[in-house]
Amino acid sequence: MSVKKIPLRQCIGCGEMKNKKEMIRVLRTAEGEIVLDATGKKNGRGAYLCPSMDCFRKAKKSRGLDRSFKMTVPAEVYDRLEKEMEEFGRQ
């Protein structure tokens, strides 16, 4: 019997490696739009965050999305993502 490999991803906030299914995917689409990907299956470049506001704040402070997407992410996008993360946390 073979053991199924669990995909791990690194959080851009805290830097911890965790199970992909436990993380929230932030996505840059081909058009350059940045959105939360709840399904984890949309096309585009993805970066992963733990589902905690602490990790989001760390990523915002260290400009983790800028590094992951190799572009400057506007402050409005961080604000919109913060609201979406709060909504996601309530569900």
TrEMBL record:
Gene3D superfamilies: YlxR-like (3.30.1230.10). Residues 9-83 form the YlxR domain. It comes from Candidatus Lachnoclostridium stercorigallinarum. This is YlxR family protein. InterPro entries: YlxR, YlxR-like_sf, YlxR_dom.
